[in-house]
Amino acid sequence: MTCMHALSIDLEDWFMVQNFANRYSHADWDRLELRVAANTAKLLDLFDECGVRATFFVLGWIAHRLPDLITEIEHRGHEIGTHGYGHERVIDLGPEAFRRDLFVSLEHLARCAKNPIIGFRAPSFSVDPTQDWIFKTLSDAGILYDSSLFPVPFHPDYANAGVPLEPYEIRQGLMEFPMTCIPRFGMNIPCSGGGYFRMFPYQWFKYGFRHCEKHGRPGVFYLHPWEIDPGQPRVTGLPLSKRFRHYVNQHKTYPRLRRLLHDFSFSPLKDVLELG
C-alpha cells in the first residue's frame, strides 16, 4: 500500500447535517435552497487546478435530484462512493432499514455513474464496529471498503477509540479506512478534516499528515461542500455548541484546502487502498 493520502468529499447539503436533525425533517428538504451544485463546482475547479482526484461519497437523495452533477463529478476523473440515501444514522436504522437505504442509494447512483460503486461512508460516521450486520450488508451490496470509523474517545455522535489507526480488513473482503487521528496526550486527536479542519490550526494538519508519512500509513481527509460556503442560510436558535461546530471559520476553509492540496499528494480512496 502506498503512503499517498486519500481525499474525500461527503456530498450533502447544508440542511442535512446531524446538527440540524431536530430542525429539518426529510419532509422539509424539498422546500429548502439547494446549494450543493454550486459549491461542488467550486471544489471541482480547485481539484483541477491542483491536479488531484478525490472520492465523492454521494448521498442518494442528491443523486436522485441532481444526476447530472454526479455524472460531471465522475467525468472529471473522481471516484463515486455512496453516503447512503437519506443521511440517517446507520446504527439507528437497524439491519432492514439500513439495507433498504443502502440499496436505494446504489440504484440512484447507478443511473448517473458508469463505474461500480465500491466505497461507503456512513452519515455522521454512525457505524459500530461490533455490529457485523453493518459490514455484511456492505459486502452483500458489492462494497469493498468502508470509511466510517473515527478512532476518537470523545464526540456526541461517534466514538470508536479502540479501532486501528491504519487501514485494515474489518471483514473478509471488506477494508476499513478509518478517519485519520494522531496519538497525543494519551488519546487520539482528529486530523482528518470537516469541523476539525475549521477549528484547529492549519499547522496541526500539516504536522499530522507528515506524521502519517513518517510512520508509513496513509491519511484520509474529508470535507462537505457546505463548509466552503459562508453565504449559506443561517439557522437561528441552535445550542451554542452546534452553532459553533457548523459555522466556525467557514470563510477560511477554501483557502486552507487549497494550501493542503499544494502541501500534500492526494488520490481517491480506492487508489490508495489499491482496489478496483
TrEMBL record:
Gene3D superfamilies referenced in this protein's UniProt entry, alphabetically: Glycoside hydrolase/deacetylase (3.20.20.370)
GO molecular function: hydrolase activity, acting on carbon-nitrogen (but not peptide) bonds
Listed InterPro entries: DUF3473 (IPR022560), Glyco_hydro/deAcase_b/a-brl (IPR011330), NODB_dom (IPR002509), PuuE_HpPgdA-like (IPR045235), XrtA_polysacc_deacetyl (IPR014344)
PROSITE patterns assigned: NODB
Domain NodB homology: 21-276
NCBIfam families: pepcterm_polyde (TIGR03006)
Protein name: Polysaccharide deacetylase
Gene source species: Chitinivibrio alkaliphilus ACht1
